[in-house]
Every structure is written in structure tokens, then in C-alpha cells.
Write a structure and sequence with these properties.
With about 425 residues, the protein is mainly α. Helix content is about 75%, strand content about 0%. It is elongated, with a radius of gyration of 37 Å.
């Protein structure tokens, strides 16, 4: 029995000598001997009764955080050290709600971890073209930010975080999107939108979510984000409408799609994109193979009405060219139809003359719109290739009409302008 007690006593003495005293942990920490401090604090916290006390966890967080700042270590190792430091500091605050040790140093270890995950790890990973790792570190930094905010912790000189770190949230979303983590990206972009942020640099949040919800076929959230986008970025109204058009017309064939355009135009009477896109769709439909042997009269009557609405909203080169080109082509179509009427009966002659008159009227109607294309082109500082093509084709239309009217002066003038485009 005595031998047994001596054996137990010897074991206790051995354990006590092995367990690291908190004083050693403090000494190593305060003198910057972090490798020794790490070994000491780990041994200290291996003892169950020490692990129930707050102080050891504070020093573990402090030590591991300082070790994680070593730029010679691999990023993954520093990330693991930071994760351990963060967990230790949270444990410290659980065991000691007053957290006097943290408060005394203005919660600097927690703020350090926020900056470390953000700048030391996240930014470096992103610049190294590793968006998945960057997302991991940016999101961890945001987690720490939110923890600090939730617990109303102050930094040096009373510094206090705002409820939303918009820049870091944006970076986190961008990294997630580039890493093909679209659902995660949507989560962070939504934080920006929900906060009502409307600075120009954050428009991507609204645009990403619009595309995300459209792809997900989430009509309710899509409608909501479009409405918010229009409110926060009204100068980009055409983009929001274009997205609405895509979402509303997806999977709808022609001519059913035209009914949808009419509905959208009623709701957005001052939006240029709707009637312009409507006109483009109708033009393609009229001259499509499927309509080759069909009656297109109703659509040919409707198209000028739609394009005139577009031009009334915004007088663009594209809209004027589409209308002038349609009217000119329609005049040719009507002339061809008139020539097909060979009969000499009064009703045939009457019909032929009426169709020839319609052809001439369409040709005359094309002139002011083609001229508008020419005029507008001169005001375009850096014309796109499509605008250059439209300009040249408008000149060709005007030259051809002048030839029909035998106006040699205009023919020569337009011919000169056409040749200038080829130089």
C-alpha cells in the first residue's frame, strides 16, 4: 500500500513538473520568444484545470497570432496559426466575458487577425491568381469583422467597425465568383445590395445577382433586384430593361414574343431598348426563311410604328438605319409584287398602280431616316465598326433612291461619300 502511494505521488510530481507554469508563458510572450511561448502555452493548456481558466487561452491567441505573421512561412501554415489564434481568443472571451486582457490591448489581436486574413493571406492569394484560396481568407476576415461588430469591440483610440465592410465584402464576392462558387458569391453580393449601397463601384453586385437569379429562374428575386438596380443606378436603365427582356422572353418563340414586348413597352413607356429590340426581332422575323411563303403584311405595317417609338425616345444611328433599311427593302418588295400583276383588267391595273404608289411612298419615307444616319454619324467621335457599316449602307440607300429619281447631283454627291468610306 505504501509503495502504491509513493508511486502515485511520484507520478503527480512528474506531471506537475511537466506542466508549464503560466508565468513561463507570459515571460516568453512578453520577450518575443514566440516559438518557446507556443510550446509552453500548449503544455499549460494540456492540463484540464488550466484549460478551464481564461488566461491561458488569451495567451494562446496572442502567441499564435504573432507566429502567423512570419512571412517566411507558407501561407497555409500561417492560415492554420491564425485559425487557432482566433478560436483561442473566442474561448478566452467565453471563459472571461469581461476580457480585460484583450480590452487592455484594445483588442489588437482580433483586429490583427482581421487584417492578416484580409491583406496578408487574401490579397496575396488573389494576386497569385488563386481565387478559391483568396475567397477562403477574405470570408474568414469578414467572419472576424462580424464577430467584432456583434460583440461591440473597440480598437485603438476607440476605433469601431461599421456594420458592413463593403470593400472586403465586394472582394470576397469577386473571389467567389472567379472561383466558380456562384451561390457563395451571390450571398456576399446580396449583403451589399441589402445594405442599399449605390456607389458606382458596387454596380457589379446588382448585375451579378440579376444574372444569377435569371439563371436560377428565381422570378421573385429577379424582379426585386431589377427594381433595386433601377432605383440605385438609373443611368443604367437600359441594362436593367435588357435583362428584363431576356428573362421575360427566354424560351418564347415568334410571333408570341411580340406580345411580351408589347406588355413590357406598356410598363416602360420611356425605355428605348424595348422598342428597338422589338423592331430588330420583327425585322428578322419578316425576312426569315419560315416567313418566306407567309403573309407578312401585318408585321410590315407594325414595324415602322415600333421603330418610330424608339426614335422618339432616343434618336440613334442604329434605330434610324433599321427603319430606313426596312422601308427601302419594303419598297423593292412592293415594286416586285406590282410587276407580278400582269393582267389588263381594270381591277388588275388599279391594284398594280396602288402597289406601285405604296412602293414609291415607302421609298420616300426611307429618305429622312437614311439622312438622319448620315447626320448622326458626323457627331460620333469614335464610331464603332457597326456604325461605320450603317453609315455606308445609308449612303448606298440614298444613292439608289437618287438614281431612281434621276437626281444626278445627289447621285454624284453620295457616290463621293461612299468612296471616301473605302479609303
Amino acid at each position: 500500500m505504501t509503495k502504491y502511494l509513493l508511486f502515485v505521488a511520484a507520478g503527480l510530481i512528474s506531471t506537475a513538473s511537466f506542466a508549464q507554469d503560466i508565468k513561463d508563458v507570459k515571460t516568453y510572450s512578453l520577450t518575443g520568444q514566440y516559438a518557446k511561448a507556443k510550446e509552453a502555452v500548449d503544455k499549460h493548456l494540456e492540463v484540464p484545470k488550466n484549460a478551464q481558466k481564461a488566461e491561458g487561452w488569451y495567451y494562446k491567441g496572442f502567441i499564435y497570432n504573432n507566429l502567423s505573421k512570419d512571412s517566411t512561412k507558407p501561407i497555409a501554415e500561417n492560415a492554420a496559426l491564425k485559425a487557432t489564434a482566433y478560436d483561442a481568443l473566442k474561448k478566452y472571451r467565453e471563459l472571461d466575458p469581461k476580457a480585460e486582457l484583450l480590452t487592455a490591448q484594445s483588442n489588437s489581436s482580433l483586429f490583427d487577425l482581421y487584417v492578416g486574413y484580409y491583406s496578408d493571406l487574401g490579397v496575396k492569394a488573389y494576386l497569385a491568381k488563386d481565387p478559391a484560396t483568396a475567397f477562403q481568407h477574405f470570408s474568414k476576415s469578414l467572419e472576424i469583422h462580424d464577430y467584432i461588430v456583434a460583440n461591440n469591440l473597440l480598437g485603438a483610440n476607440g476605433f469601431k467597425f461599421s456594420n458592413l465592410d463593403t470593400t472586403l465584402t465586394l472582394y470576397t464576392a469577386i473571389a467567389a465568383a472567379e472561383a466558380k462558387k456562384t451561390d457563395e458569391a451571390a450571398t456576399y453580393y446580396k449583403k451589399i445590395v441589402d445594405a442599399g449601397v449605390s456607389d458606382a463601384q458596387y454596380i457589379d453586385a446588382y448585375q451579378f445577382l440579376a444574372d444569377h437569379y435569371k439563371t436560377k429562374k428565381d422570378k421573385a428575386n429577379f424582379a426585386s433586384i431589377i427594381e433595386k438596380g433601377k432605383k440605385s443606378y438609373p443611368t443604367n436603365n437600359e441594362y436593367w430593361t435588357a435583362m428584363e427582356i431576356e428573362e421575360a422572353t427566354e424560351g418564347i418563340g415568334k410571333p408570341e414574343i411580340f406580345t411580351k414586348y408589347e406588355e413590357l413597352m406598356t410598363k416602360n413607356a420611356t425605355n428605348y431598348t424595348l422598342p428597338y429590340n422589338y423592331g430588330v426581332e420583327m425585322y428578322r422575323y419578316i425576312y426569315s426563311d419560315q416567313m418566306k411563303d407567309s403573309n407578312t403584311t401585318a408585321y410590315k405595317t407594325k414595324l415602322p410604328e415600333v421603330m418610330k417609338k424608339a426614335i422618339a425616345i432616343k434618336n440613334t444611328s442604329e434605330a434610324n438605319f433599321l427603319l430606313s433599311n426596312f422601308l427601302y427593302n419594303n419598297s423593292i418588295d412592293l415594286s416586285e409584287e406590282a410587276r407580278k400583276i400582269k393582267g389588263a383588267k381594270p381591277e388588275d391595273v388599279k391594284k398594280r398602280k396602288a402597289m406601285q404608289a405604296d412602293a414609291e411612298a415607302a421609298m420616300n419615307q426611307a429618305v429622312p431616316y437614311a439622312e438622319a444616319v448620315v447626320t448622326l454619324f458626323s457627331s460620333i467621335e469614335k464610331p464603332k465598326s457597326s456604325e461605320k457599316i450603317n453609315y455606308k449602307q445609308a449612303l448606298v440607300i440614298l444613292k439608289n433612291i437618287a438614281e431612281v429619281k434621276k437626281d444626278t447631283t445627289k447621285v454624284a454627291s453620295y457616290d463621293k461619300l461612299i468612296k471616301a468610306t473605302e479609303m
